[in-house]
Each structure stands twice: as structure tokens, then as C-alpha cells.
Amino acid sequence: MSIEHCKIIELPKIAEPRGNLTFIEGNNHIPFDIRRVYYLYDVPGGSERGGHAHKALSQLIIAMSGSFDVVLDDGGEKKRFHLNRSYQGLYVCPMIWRELDNFSSGSVCMVLASNIYEESDYYRDYEEFM
Ligand code: TYD
After folding, report:
1. Tens of pLDDT along 42-51?
2. How far is the CA of 86 from the centre of ligand 1 (A)?
3. Is the pTM of this model over 0.85?
């Protein structure tokens, strides 16, 4: 799949004086069912995460707190996204190389995934991915 399928999804936001609420339903607000949730936190300044692609996995990446950048690469084109809103998610379709950097201190990166963890779904070698 190409990078054109990857985009920022605006999530529902119920704003009230007592605070905001955002929700995500699988196959409704995002184009896949959610089978796994994981999050990155306590990421040291200057650290990079990612550095791999997935064969079949779809993901939604959200900056729950703070900010960071996600660089997507489909082998032909690269795009950098800056995530800093908890009501926006970056949809990443299968077969996209991703790198995460520029983490602000205290940032939390939550990822919703279409499947459980399977190492066999990873390309960890860029040449092999290409
Ligand atoms: P990895 O996917 O390389 O992290 P990131 O892309 O965010 O930098 O995973 C780091 C380690 O955690 C690796 O040993 C695999 C393990 N892991 C799991 O066991 N389950 C999971 O759901 C994830 C995402 C990673």
C-alpha cells in the first residue's frame, strides 16, 4: 500500500467545561478492528523508535500527551507528521516503514493495532522491506 492511504484522522471530541473526552470505535472511526493497544513513554530526549515496517498490520498512532514526529516511507515517498493532539490519530496502513523521533519530555505515544504482536509480521531490515 502507498503512503497516500496514511492520514491524520480527526477523532470525536466531546468538549465540556469539566474536561474533554475522545473515543475510538474499531471499524467505525478507524478502518480496522482493535486487537492490541501499546504505548511508549519515558522516552529519553533524542531517542528514536520504530525503524521497521509491518507486512499486514494496520495501526493508529496518537500523541496522548506531549508531542513527537512520525516519518512514514512507502519506498517511494517519505512524509513527516508532527503529532501533538490527543484527538488526532495517524493511520498507518500495512507495508509502510516508520520512524518516530523528536519526542518531547513526558510524551506518551499510544498505538492501536489491528492484530496481536507477531514478530513474523515485521520487516526490521530496510533493504529487505524495499
Ligand atoms: P518494537 O516494535 O521494536 O518497538 P518500537 O517500534 O516502538 O520502537 O518493540 C520493542 C520490543 O518490544 C521488541 O522486543 C518487541 C517487544 N514488543 C512486544 O513484545 N509486544 C508488542 O506489542 C510490541 C509493540 C513490542
Report:
1. 999 999 999 9
2. 22
3. yes
Long-range contacts of 75-78 (CB under 8 A, 24+ apart): 75/129, 75/130, 76/2, 76/3, 77/2, 77/3, 78/3
Interatomic CA distance for residues 96 and 99, integer angstroms: 10
**Length of the chain measured in residues:** 130
Closest C-alpha residue for ligand 1 atom 23: 117
Cβ of 40 closer than 6 Å to ligand 1, yes or no, is yes
Q: Measured in angstroms, how far is the CA atom of residue 18 from the centroid of ligand 1? A: 36
How far apart are the C-alpha atoms of 81 and 8, rounded to whole Å? 9
Question: Which amino acid residue places its CA nearest to atom 14 of ligand 1?
Answer: 119
CA distance 47 to 43: 7
pLDDT one-digit tens code per residue, 51-94: 999 999 999 999 999 999 999 999 999 999 999 999 999 999 99
117 lines ligand 1 (CB under 6 A): yes
